[in-house]
Specification:
Helix content of chain B: 10-25%
Low-confidence stretches of chain A: 66-84
Organism (chain B): Protea cynaroides
Order of helices and strands of chain A: EEHHEHHHHHH
Strand content of chain A: 5-15%
CATH architecture of chain B: 6 Propeller
Distance between the termini of chain A: 68 Å
Largest sheet of chain B: 5 strands, antiparallel
Number of helices of chain A: 8
Radius of gyration of chain A: 23 Å
Number of domains of chain B: 1
Mean pLDDT of chain A: 80
Pfam family, one (chain A): Skp1_POZ
Low-confidence stretches of chain B: 1-25, 291-300, 372-381
Strand order of the largest sheet of chain A: 2-1-3
Largest interface: A-B, 51 and 52 residues
Protein name (chain A): SKP1-like protein
CATH topology of chain B: Neuraminidase
Number of strands of chain B: 24
Protein name (chain B): F-box domain-containing protein
Subunit structure (chain A): Part of a SCF (SKP1-cullin-F-box) protein ligase complex.
Shape of chain B: globular
CATH class of one domain in chain A: Alpha Beta
Oligomer: heterodimer
Radius of gyration of chain B: 24 Å
Helix content of chain A: 40-55%
Chain lengths: ~180, ~375
């Protein structure tokens, strides 16, 4: 199956090219393509030209991949060839190599700063690219996991909008635990 | 040629452009659904700490739909009572634990060990505290969004039930359930409900009663805390020489039957609660402990008890405790689907007196969650 080219326009009016099979990794783009708008340029007013190539890179890697890591676009996936359900040791080995290779790729792909992460997460959310959304959200979660609320406020420019009384109230709850209920 | 493309999938265009305008290179303007998606992956204690970040985080973390989603993603752990220390946990349900007071033995409370919120439970209307530990069930009724305590009152001739709903208007009160009495005894029968803690599954609390008069038998007396109906169920088989333990497996009441003569276990699943029909679904054995040269006791002196169970992502796991007089107990997890055995690394020195599967959550013992459906719409609309 030869792949049609799709053109995507970033928020700052730059046009990028992507294969249709790769574009289908995005639910949003897939719906647009199936809606019959293939001959046009798809404007993406929420994705800037800094981020769009990064998104396209992900889609290329995962094009035609619906959630599973079975098929990876490697010079085009042969869709007519069925994957046999029988256990095949060779196939199993190849699968393992593919999974390892994908993990390594993801590791390198995900090496960027916080601002890119934030923008990429928004783009993945907007374009409904589930795999990319999972990757970025998981990274964001692991980033904040080890931090205190104060560090989070500082790091993400969040202002505490609680009154001092409310702040205090949040700490008081533990006093309700007297000897009768405390654990040894 | 250009065509105007209308983006139909996903969030509305208005919402997206709003988040774009607000975006100022920082996370305070993160769309709510993304913040939700990030925080739901963190452990309960961390998320709870993060309520202090700002109001929007606080609101999200206290939202019932978030709390429910967070629970569904959380990995189960265990609460273990060792010997006679910490003997104050009677049950665990969706992150809340039922506790018994240390001094006043009849006082109860329900708490969330992460948020430290706790409510006192008033004394029951009955005077039967004989089998206190085993006569209280603690469950969550999904359709009502309510945590309920169920008290089995056993006056030797009949069994009746009292319930208390958490987070109700008008405070916490025990209420006798009319028509919940069930006659167990005929002539000289005598029953006892103090074998093990009741098993709560999806709002139904199952108590195991043992008939003391020969020939002995076991009945399950189940109380549906949602519909408030009671049901008496026979167990599929019973033999005095065997040890039967009740656990939950994949949302079903299950009986693990162990003949003491060997290490073979059969697992019976209660397929239909109303009909009381059981099905034998698994048979397996647990490997014997490795024999060390210094062990004085023979293999047969080590005892293996079924302690707990949990189901996650289609896997059904039974937890066993293996103990002997000469060594500290060891714990084994047995996966029923893959038939694999895992040694668990617990720092448990004494044999356990109770073992609860527990998941940390953000549920509050002070609230009723029956607005969950409304909330999920509110959050993302």
């Amino acid at each position: 199956m030869s792949s049609t080219k799709i053109f995507l326009k970033s928020s700052d009016d730059k046009t990028f090219e992507i294969d249709e099979t790769a574009a289908r990794a995005s639910e949003t783009l897939k719906n647009i393509i199936d809606g019959g708008c293939l001959d046009g340029v798809i404007p993406l007013p929420n994705v800037s030209s800094n981020i769009l190539p990064k998104v396209i890179e992900y889609c290329k890697k995962h094009g035609g991949d619906n959630g599973s890591s079975k098929k990876i676009a490697n010079g085009g996936v042969d869709k007519d060839k069925e994957i046999l359900p029988d256990y095949d040791e060779e196939e199993d080995k190849r699968e393992k190599v593919r999974v390892d290779e994908l993990k390594k790729w993801e590791e390198e792909y995900m090496d960027f700063d916080q601002q890119v992460l934030y923008d990429l997460m928004l783009a993945a959310n907007y374009l409904h690219i589930k795999g990319l959304l999972d990757l970025t959200v998981e990274k964001a979660a692991s980033m904040i996991r080890g931090r205190t609320p104060d560090q989070i406020r500082e790091n993400f420019n969040i202002n505490s909008d609680f009154t001092p009384e409310e702040e205090e109230e949040m700490i008081l709850i533990e006093d309700e635990w007297d000897d009768e209920w405390a654990f040894d | 040629m250009r065509k105007a493309v209308k983006v139909e999938a996903g969030a509305s265009a208005a919402k997206i452009s709003k988040s774009l305008i607000l975006k100022k290179n920082d996370m305070s303007y993160l769309p709510q659904e993304l913040l939700f998606n990030i925080l739901v992956r963190l452990p309960a204690d961390k998320v709870y700490e993060f309520r202090r970040v700002c109001r929007s985080w606080y609101t999200l973390i206290h939202d019932p739909f978030f709390i429910k989603s967070h629970l569904e993603r959380s990995k189960p752990g265990f609460i273990v009572k060792q010997g006679f220390v910490n003997k104050n946990v009677l049950g665990s349900c969706n992150g809340l634990v039922l506790l018994k007071g240390k001094k006043k033995q009849s006082s109860l409370s329900v708490a969330n060990l992460i948020t430290k919120q706790r409510v006192n439970i008033p004394s029951t209307t009955s005077d039967h505290h004989d089998y206190l530990d085993y006569s209280y069930g603690f469950t969550y009724v999904p359709e009502a969004g309510t945590f309920k305590l169920v008290h089995l009152v056993d006056d030797r001739w009949t069994v009746t039930f009292e319930v208390l709903s958490l987070g109700c208007f008008g405070g916490h009160k025990w209420r006798c359930v009319n028509g919940s009495s069930i006659s167990l005894n005929s002539e000289n029968d005598k029953w006892q409900f103090r074998n093990q803690h009741p098993i709560s599954i999806n709002g139904i609390v199952h108590f195991a009663g043992v008939r003391l008069v020969q020939p002995s038998s076991i009945h399950i007396v189940s109380f549906d805390a949602g519909a408030e109906v009671v049901q008496k169920i026979r167990v599929p088989i019973h033999d005095d020489k065997e040890c039967n333990t009740f656990i939950e497996l994949g949302g079903m009441l299950s009986m693990v039957q162990n003949s003491n003569t060997n290490n073979t276990y059969s697992v019976w699943i209660l397929k239909d609660w109303l009909k009381g029909s059981w099905e034998k679904q698994y048979m397996f054995s647990i490997s014997k402990p490795s024999i060390k040269a210094t062990v004085h006791w023979s293999d047969s002196s080590s005892i293996i008890d079924v302690r707990s169970s949990f189901s996650r992502k289609g896997r059904k796991i039974i937890i066993f405790e293996r103990r002997s007089f000469s060594s500290t107990p060891s714990h084994i997890a047995y996966d029923l689907e893959s038939s694999e055995e895992y040694e668990l690394q617990f720092d448990i020195r004494q044999h356990s007196t109770a073992f609860f599967t527990h998941v940390n959550s953000l549920f509050s013992p002070k609230l009723c969650y029956n607005w969950v459906h409304l909330s999920s719409q509110r959050l993302f609309s």
